[in-house]
Specification:
Elements: E1 5-8, H1 13-29, E2 33-39, H2 50-71, E3 77-83, H3 86-95, E4 99-104, H4 118-125, E5 130-134, E6 147-151, H5 160-173, E7 177-183, H6 193-202, H7 205-223, E8 229-235, H8 238-243, E9 249-256, E10 259-261, E11 264-266, H9 269-277, E12 282-286
Parallel strand pairs: 1-2, 1-4, 2-3, 4-5, 6-7, 6-9, 7-8, 9-12
Antiparallel strand pairs: 5-12, 10-11
Helix pairs in contact: 1-2, 3-4, 6-7
Length: about 290
């Protein structure tokens, strides 16, 4: 089954930027574009029944889609207007997509779309990659020689899904993958005889981290021999090190494990921090 690139739209400037991004990505990958709008019947509009309101919403979505179709005349586009709670509807749409693209509001530490609302809920629930795009995102950034920046951590299998997505995206764009691994000094009690031997064999902490990054990248270099790769290893928190790379990124790719809480789900701290502060589109790839 061919999975589409799916864009969630709600008529805002942010969602229209996400729709543009999704259209370009669908063309690059040779995939269809699916546009999804989730809406709720407004009983307060007593003069308009459910069918009438559905018609209003559908026409607004189709108007946005017309612009994308005009820019990409060969692109296969479908539109689904579904009634229901947005986070549930978009998470279902993500499950059927190659990736889901959403808009995110604001720059800096305050982003209303993400904090405690639809975007964060969808990211925490989605079983497929979700890309967040800010209003004002321009295609020019993708053609300016910027990299696909991806965070790598742990053993090779821990970040396999994240690296796969980064390499696939870079291959479609003719871009460089910049793989970033951050490390910190562990507490002394965390060392075991086995881990100390590994560090000694590698020549110290930083060489060990460089070796670990190279090992994680090895199968993806083989699978995507035409994709240039830059390796970056730096001491510091993962979120801060990744954000220091945002200025050279056309896309930032991070992994996430969702954390199930009594009051719902939340994403990991690194993904949360990057989503709050990066000024480029961010892809969050589930790996749990």
């Amino acid at each position: 089954m061919t999975r589409p690139i799916t864009a969630g739209v709600d008529g805002t400037e942010e969602s229209l930027a996400a729709l543009d991004w999704a259209g370009r990505e669908a063309v690059r990958r040779g995939l269809p574009l699916r546009v999804v709008h989730a809406w709720r019947y407004a009983e307060s509009l007593a003069t308009a029944d459910r069918d009438t309101q559905h018609g209003w919403v559908s026409e607004g979505v189709k108007e946005a889609v017309r612009a994308v179709s005009e820019r990409h005349p060969g692109l296969e586009v479908s539109v689904d207007v579904v009634e229901g709670e947005p986070a549930h509807a978009l998470a279902r749409a993500a499950a059927e997509a190659e990736l889901l693209v959403l808009g995110s509001r604001g720059h800096g530490p305050v982003i209303g779309f993400l904090v405690g609302s639809v975007g964060q809920q969808v990211i925490a629930r989605a079983t497929r990659p979700v890309v967040l795009v800010r209003a004002g995102d321009q295609a020019a950034a993708e053609a300016a020689g910027r990299d696909v920046v991806v965070g790598q951590h742990g053993d090779p299998e821990d970040s396999a899904a994240t690296l796969r997505f980064a390499f696939e995206t870079a291959a479609a764009r003719g871009a460089t993958v910049r793989a970033v691994r951050a490390w910190t000094l562990p507490p002394v009690f965390a060392y075991s005889p086995g881990s100390l031997k590994l560090l000694d064999d590698a020549g110290g902490l930083e060489p060990y981290e460089r070796q670990a990054l190279a090992e994680a990248l090895r199968p993806w270099r083989v699978r995507f021999p035409g994709v240039p790769v830059a390796e970056h290893v730096e001491m510091g928190s993962a979120g801060q090190v990744l954000l220091s790379m945002a200025g050279r990124a056309q896309l930032m790719v991070v992994g996430r494990r969702s954390h199930r809480l009594a009051v719902g789900s939340r994403i990991g701290s690194v993904a949360h921090g990057v989503l709050h502060h990066a000024d480029c589109p961010v892809a969050v790839v589930p790996h749990d």
